[in-house]
Amino acid sequence: MTAPCFEKIGRIPFKGPESDDPLAFRHYEPDRMVLGKRMEDHLRVAVCWWHSFCWPGVDMFGSGTFDRPWQAADTMENAKLKLHAAFEFFEKLGVPFFCFHDADVAPLGETIAEGDANLARIEELIRDGIDRTGVKLLWGTANLFSHRRYMAGGATNPDPEVFAFAAAQVARVLEMTHRLGGENYVLWGGREGYDTLLNTDMKRELDQLGRFMSLVVEHKHRIGFKGTILIEPKPMEPTKHQYDHDAATVHAFLRKYGLENEIKLNLEVNHATLAGHSFEHEVVYAIANDLMGSFDINRGDPQNGWDTDQFPNDDREAALALYHVLSAGGLTTGGFNFDAKVRRQSIDPEDLFIAHIGGMDTLARGLLMAERMILEGKLASHVADRYAGWNEGLGTDILDGRVGLGDLAKLARDQNLKPEPRSGRQEYLENLVNRY
Ligand code: XUL
Ligand code: CO
Questions:
Q1: In this prediction, what percent of the chain has a pLDDT beyond 70?
Q2: Which residue among 242, 248, 339, 400 has its CA within the 20 to 30 Å range from the CA of 134?
Q3: Angle 112-133/160-179 helices, nearest 10 degrees?
Q4: Distances (CA, A) of 210 to 189, 217, 252, 290
């Protein structure tokens, strides 16, 4: 039995909104019923392996600031210690899910064979952790961006051998995710993009990426994985331009390669901001096009144009996203993953707990606000009224193709149409949302 890694911290309790204990939940109450479902089952919160246990607190100007014993070197011994710390953290925090990249959980070595051996051993220990704690795998993914072989991309690399290497990594983690009972598999194209168009054949790279995604989907069906394949859009960083720019761009890509019924989206708050959208926009776009899958709930900094991966602390933003998600029927295989890291100065193990507690409380408050928005029904009825004309008469004649452009021109003249504008009532709706 290895000694605990977070010795001074016990199981995080729920103490309610009046509590000022930083190591207690004020709003997140797993068993609280919200619209007929437990809070935990609505939110399906996940902790990510990479930022919470692998990231050492580096930035562009300085090396790691954290003192986590397992980060001293990328060895199997440290991978086991890290795994031990991870499951202790999941259990003490009381989260139902976790997520990982292959490279987070074991050293991958330089060849596929080296990685195979290490991952096989770690998989047994992850299985033990899942069985012992009941914490489940939300999604697995392959790191196709850190090793120098991927500097020009994985699937979009000019060298087909890199494509093959990437395929081997993805097949391996997809199979591992399947065996571990994972509910989704994520593909984030960190380096599937370009640094300069001067050395890039964009048409070729897009076709390679389309082929890669088709191969992943084929393999999913071959092994019988029933979870969801998700693409995570991001417009840039690390590359100047990434092909999975935002939800709409990925949508066009999926349709071009005939994958729109096979792949959904893992939307990240910070990536939406980088693409010049609100998170709410990305959520609503995904829902409108039947692409909603899962969420990475980390945010950016309003003044900085980069991926700061901060924990969410804006109830209003969470409430609006959750309002749309719940109105669309809620999550199925997806969840809310904290792809978030504590700040580089937050060096105490306690900081990692406090960050997640705050994020979970933000989601919980957002959920309770969304519940009120739905129960009162004022927002929904305003929108329904606004479009009521499209449910009958002229509206359905147009939508169902019963009238052509010439018919409409005749009708507008014959009936001497003079449509009266109606207020969009934006301020009323904004004030309404603030009341929740
Ligand atoms: C990077 C990012 C990734 C993906 C998984 O910006 O979000 O961590 O979530 O590869
Ligand atoms: Co992410």
A1: 100
A2: 339
A3: 20
A4: 12, 11, 11, 20
Q: How confident is the model over 247-268, as a mean pLDDT?
A: 98
Output the pTM of the full model: 0.97
Q: Is 337 in the pocket of ligand 1 (CB under 6 A)?
A: no
Burial of 370 (0-12, 13-18, 19+ CB in 10 A): buried
- Give 33-376's CATH code, choosing from 3.40.228.10, 3.40.50.300, 2.30.30.30, 3.20.20.150: 3.20.20.150
What are phi and psi for residue 382, nearest 5 degrees? -60, -45
Spatial contact of 262 and 217, defined as CB atoms under 8 Å apart: yes
Give, for ligand 1, the residue of 150, 231, 232 to mutate: max count of ligand atoms closer than 8 Å to Cβ.
232
What does the domain layout of the chain look like in residue ranges? 33-376, 395-435
Going by C-alpha positions, the residue among 201, 203, 274 that lies closest to residue 237 is: 274
On whether the CB atoms of residues 273 and 279 are closer than 8 A, the answer is: yes
Q: Is 101 tagged catalytic?
A: yes
> Catalytic pick from 27, 84, 102, 104?
104
- Mutation test residue for ligand 1: of 53, 296, 307, 309, the one with most atoms within 8 Å of CB: 296
pLDDT class of 2 with cuts at 50, 70, 90: low
Tokens of 125: 């220990």
For ligand 1, whether the C-beta of 192 sits within 6 Å is no
For 359-391, the pLDDT digits (tens) are 999 999 999 999 999 999 999 999 999 999 999
